Amino acid sequence: MQEQATLGWRHRLALLPLCLAMAAAHAASDPLAPSAGWSAYTAGQGATPPMGWNSWNAFATNIDEAKILGSAQRIFDSGLAAKGYRYINLDDGWVAHRRMPDGRLLIRPERFPSSVTAGGSSFRPFTDRLHAMGFKAGIYSDLGRNTCSQAYSPDSPDLPKGSVLEREVGLYGRIDQDIKLYFADWGFDYIKVDGCGVRAFGANEAKVRSGQYRALAPVLDMESVTRSDIPVVQAEFGQINAALRRYRPNGDFLLSLCIWGSGDVRAWGKNFGNVSRTSDDITPAWSRMLSNFDSAAKRELYAHPGSWNDPDMLFIGKGDFDAEHLVEARSHFSLWAMLNAPLLIGADLRTTPQPLVDILGNADIIALNQDPAGNQATLAYDADDLQILVKQLASGQKAVAIFNRGVTAIDVDLTAEHLKLRKDAPITLTDLWSKADTTFTNETRLHVAPRETRIFRVQGQRTLADGLYLSEMPGSVNPAVDGVTQPQADPTIFRSSFAWSGTKGPGERPMYAGWGGARADSTPYGQLLQIAGARYAAGIGILANSRLEVRNHGYRRLSAQVGVDDSAQDRARAVTFLVYGDGKLLAKSKPMRWGQPAQALNADVAGVKIIELVARTGAGGNAQLPVSWGDAALLSSARHD
Ligand code: GLA
């Protein structure tokens, strides 16, 4: 059975759309060759992070039409809809079964009475209703034959019923048929694609051995990147992309990848969907929120308009984020806004107390999340108990969030340097909860209560008056190739004890690959950027054999101080730094080794749309080699220093 399943996958690989095959050919020939393009996902409706509501955190599989429409009605009545919350998304639990022999999916009629139409089972009346209210509608499926509740909630009364085949409700082998049903026939606008079907149905699983489900050889493994078959998963997402284009040719769709940071998806999810989950599920526990936040917080260069990091849905309304915990609820909301995370409400809004609805409706904070520049906040100060996140806005202003993760109040010195603003000019902070303004020069002291996040819009004079550091514009910098050849778990992500497994077993191990990925103002392994003893407060840290794509936005010059970072272990290999503009070589360094002072690179990028920054080294050496693009910036002036 397992063998057959594997053959099935291989067969499907051969059906990859031509463009994917061509991209693979490009990558196989020379992944560092300039592509003159932007390879992250831009199809669909992800120009800003999706906002809306999802049924899972509030109801799990115990969903029905009244619950969903009740929450939608509150979004409408409370004014949240007018503030941008527009996707109303069904999660797991809606399917009755797959009809045989034609394979059409049937909706649970007792839960969705409007689906019982003359022509059979259809969500069209439901989506029509949502559309008439001004909303968009979202649906849930899985990469495999079965969903996550079938994998992990065996006792749920809400699971699909019927024969083994009738209970196979996922996309595996059915992509064209199901995407057509969801988008062309039923009128959905958003799909979340989960991955339990390709993770939890191996031949040795009890639920498979008992004959309850068919085996599908797992291609994802939460605990081990090396046991994941990444090309197979990518191929299936590629087919889903193609089906969405087929059945929504006007591009009015949103694709949400949900493989929880497994399979190194934090490096490549940005190429396949509008949002991509960076971790396992959030729970309404402070410590779990920290884990989910951490899984995305250092992935600032992997999120862009069209392709966002997704640390999971909001849990405002329950547990540590209920109406008795407004400090925590405000923190959760502020942090998700700063990360450009999807703002998907996970509460039963029919009963949510108004103070929590007011948090979700803070228009100033929503505006940070929806800022058109699409820059995820970067970490200006990082410690286990306190972090300062700074976000560059399209207006030229900034936002800053000061996040006290711990249990002790902290008096924080916020400095002009954290903000990359001049210390001799006034800086004005607008508190986005109280709306109060304060002005200071150089630095100011702020009291931050336990678990509080102080969040401000910031006006001041930029240290770099003539342009932007690339690390201030991560939404326009895409690590197309980040140099990571052996993905490793990021040890800096908070390892909370999982609520659903208690404390049985050996505890949480570092599990989310991403360590060694490209970073803003940091080396790939969290050190400060430094070349031959010279520190760079701004810049991009990345491994050698990497290629960054940068959207230009009308600047005239790219300038950087390049070299092998002092943190590199390999002192022998030489790295050449190259700058391309729309595919043409514009500047090239001499071969640089560890300990050599930085070389200045300047490139005339006037009129160029896509700049590419390549750091190339030969084969050999057994350590990954951190290199630094120190002070890398796009400037308005053409003058070369
Ligand atoms: C997974 C996902 C959740 C939710 C459930 C549904 O756990 O990560 O967000 O969709 O499945 O079963």
Automatic annotation (TrEMBL):
Reactions listed under catalytic activity: Hydrolysis of terminal, non-reducing alpha-D-galactose residues in alpha-D-galactosides, including galactose oligosaccharides, galactomannans and galactolipids
Keywords: Disulfide bond, Glycosidase, Hydrolase, Signal
Glycosyl hydrolase family 98 putative carbohydrate-binding module domain segment(s): 489-636
Cited Pfam families: Melibiase_2 (PF16499), Melibiase_C (PF17801), NPCBM (PF08305)
InterPro entries: Aldolase_TIM, Galactose-bd-like_sf, GH, Glyco_hyd_98_carb-bd, Glyco_hydro_27, Glyco_hydro_b, Melibiase_C, NPCBM_sf
Cited SUPFAM superfamilies: (Trans)glycosidases, Galactose-binding domain-like, Glycosyl hydrolase domain
UniProt keyword annotation of Translocase present: no
Signal sequence region: 1-27
EC number: 3.2.1.22
Family: Belongs to the glycosyl hydrolase 27 family.
Name by which UniProt lists this protein: Alpha-galactosidase
Organism of provenance: Massilia terrae
